Amino acid sequence: MNGKPKFLTAGDAARYCQVSLNTVKNWIGSGLLPAFKLPKGHYRIERDVFRRFLEAQEMPIDPEFFGEESARILVVDDEAAIVQFLQRALSHEGYDVETAMDGYEGLIRVGQFKPDLLLLDVRMPLIDGLEVTRRIKASADTKKIVVIGMTGQDDPEIGRSLVAAGARTCLKKPLVLADLLRVIEENLGGARRESDRPSSRPDLVSER
Q1: What is the extent of the structural domain holding 43?
Q2: CA distances from 166 to 15, 129, 130 (A)
Q3: What is the pLDDT of residue 131?
């Protein structure tokens, strides 16, 4: 995988998971972590198998460790609690996450960070999310960035206006993490293919 060795040692797995070597051997012995034994008794674990093990156990996945390029997400919101929550949650999912606290800073970070996807609050000081979206979509350098809006307001017109400006969709706050992750996964596939197709999801996703 992109120059990474195909097989890991039990020690590699232990260091990654920050557990003892005996813990990894117990996982292998119980069948939880598939591995094979070399003639001298050392274990080898396929890198892809180890990744699936981490996913099944809901452990963090480091894309760099697996030779993968991590998708970049920029979170722009003037509420610090939301920014911190999203940064932790999305980083845990393996995304490369940067943040900004208003639309002006967000536009600067777009140029510096070059995100694949922008999570953008609609109502912010200095420059609101609608104007940020318009500027991003007006530039040849940034128009392929996937924009997903967020709003705490109940007015469906907000979501429609944002989508008309070029966003894929607009999610209703408070965010439902499972829904957010699903929308991100669906739309990042399009970003990697440099597709500019609109999302088939509704303009405004209601809280469940």
Answers
A1: 7-56
A2: 44, 11, 9
A3: 96
- Number of domains making up the chain: 2
Q: Looking at the structure, do residues 32 and 91 belong to the same domain, yes or no?
A: no
Same domain, 93 and 157: yes
Instruction: Give CA–CA dist 10/37, Å, rounded.
Output: 10
Residue type, 142: T
Of residues 93 and 204, the one with the higher pLDDT is: 93
- What CATH number should be reported for the domain holding residue 12? 1.10.1660.10
pLDDT, tens digit, for every residue of 105-121? 999 999 999 999 999 99
C-alpha–C-alpha distance, residues 153 and 146, integer Å: 22
Question: Could you tell me if 129 and 32 lie in one domain?
Answer: no
Alpha helices in 77-176 (DSSP H): 80-92, 103-113, 129-138, 156-165
Phi, psi of 99 (to 5 degrees): -135, 160
- Euclidean distance between CA atoms 191 and 206, whole angstroms: 24
pLDDT (mean) for 42-59: 93
Average pLDDT, integer, range 97-101: 96
Distance CA 14, CA 168 (A): 41
**What is the enclosing helix (H) or strand (E) of 203?**
none
User: Are 84 and 26 in a shared domain?
Assistant: no
Global pTM? 0.63
Q: What is the CATH number of the domain that holds 167?
A: 3.40.50.2300
Same domain, 120 and 23: no
Structure tokens at 53: 């093990």
